Amino acid sequence: MNDQLRNSFTSLAPPIVASPAKRIQALTGDPDFMTSLARGLAVIQAFQERKRHLTIAQISHRTEIPRAAVRRCLHTLIKLGYATTDGRTYSLLPKVLTLGHAYLSSTPLAVSSQPYLDRMSEQLHEACNMATLEDDDILYIARSATTQRLISVDLSVGGRLPAYCTSMGRILLAALDDASLDEYLERVDLQPRTSRTLVSKAALLTCLHKVREQGWCIVDQELEQGLRSIAVPVYDASGQVLAALNVSTHAGRVTSTDLEQRILPIMLIASRDLSTQLFS
Q1: Are residues 85 and 162 in the same domain?
Q2: Is the pLDDT of residue 75 over 90?
């Protein structure tokens, strides 16, 4: 496994560094690219767990898409049953879940990983998750939760977290080629989630090099105080990192040594077996 990873591997919230509008603009030279569709998807993605009700101005600020275009997107989403409004703010409706259901119900990764996550969670009595890299975030595609909620963020399937301060994110970042990793480090804004969060790009790069070498990653209370997690890669048929698998624990119950000595061997076996099943 180590050789494989080493070789392959509020109100107006500020817009992300590479805003949806800028990414859309970069693609408008393609005659087959549908700008209106791209804008509609960006509007949907502007909604988050803690900001489920947004005004047109807030969505425009988050995406950098002009207000008039945001208004047309929202009007279309309402007519199709994907959104609703109280006259001032807008929110998504459950129908929007159908956009992701086709992927989650058909992809072998999400479907095949669930029994492994459930088995590990039952064996370890800890939350187990799987994620892929989506832009600069990790995207949760499968999970097996415990009755005890570890952190304040709702990590349901479809949820996103910054890659730089999560164990699965660092596995996925370490698997990028050097050029892609350099580009990521140039644009990412390393915000301190806790006092332990790595906010130095040089320190993060050193950490990612270590992850490449050892083939696994522990993140100790960098995302949220009291949360300690360990992650390993899942490979595709060519030996490239396809996704990451992690176990999340409470720092008061499980030490870093326990993660490495007791939990890591179980995770490596699960990752190996899942990778074999996916592409055998």
Answers
A1: no
A2: yes
